Amino acid sequence: MGGIPLPGELGERAREILAGRVEPVPARDAATVVILREGREGIETYLLRRKASMAFAAGAYVFPGGSADPRDTDHAVAWAGPSPAEWGAVFGADDKTARGLVCAAVRETFEESGVLLAGPSAGSVVADTTGDDWEADRLALIERSLSFADLLDRRGLVLRSDLLRPWAHWITPEVEHRRFDTRFFVAALPPGQRTRDVGGEADQVTWARPADAITRARAGEIFLMPPTYRTLNELSAYEKVGDVLGTEREIVTLMPRIAEVDGEMHIVLDDDYRFGVA
């Protein structure tokens, strides 16, 4: 059985949870977006390295994303594409939760990469978000002094939910002190837009072929959380961004469990899956 050992306090906490003496922390709704582009040697994905000071996934290379903000469920958010009800059917969520997840996906992607999946109409997309005024809006979103609905309204934009595709659903293991109920989306980098080093929770950003990121993780050069590792491994089978976006995915909820292995507490997912993380 593969998995990640849980030493010290986490191991003791895992035993207490399994024994029913400690209640797991509730998982917060969150969204993650895998941004893809065509590279010279195949598809590439945008990754951020989280600062070592972060309380969750410190030092890990991750996709843009984060927790849903209560304001993400605001009906004032201008919307084009599949409805919240349609997204809810895909992810097994009610309409309100699905609306919040899609809005969080688009908002967090803009906050953490500068990429905005929105446009002046249902058939267009913003061509450039690199100006000082865009940067001011991005920072205001991060500081929560500006809501996503207000940003779109002020700029006359609509959220383009059709630019997203569903990919996966992961829930943080019960042993963790911070837990997230995360829906994974994939999206192509819109024509004309550019990612940029936006700082904040990340200290490094990069574009990488999924297979190359997996190779580096196996060599211990970078740290990948299990959901990121598995997603990159799945994406490495595709040659074109269009192939990824055209894939019909059955969304299965995955939550690595805690178990005792040879007297030691571990996080495991299944019997044949090796996490492959540093």
UniProtKB/TrEMBL annotation:
Known Gene3D superfamilies for this protein? Nucleoside Triphosphate Pyrophosphohydrolase
Cofactor names:
Mg(2+); Mn(2+)
Q: Which GO terms describe its molecular function?
A: hydrolase activity, acting on acid anhydrides, in phosphorus-containing anhydrides; metal ion binding
The UniProt keywords, alphabetically, are:
Hydrolase, Magnesium, Manganese, Metal-binding
Looking at the record, the residues that make up the Nudix hydrolase domain are 26-230
Matching SUPFAM superfamilies: Nudix
Protein known as = Nudix hydrolase domain-containing protein
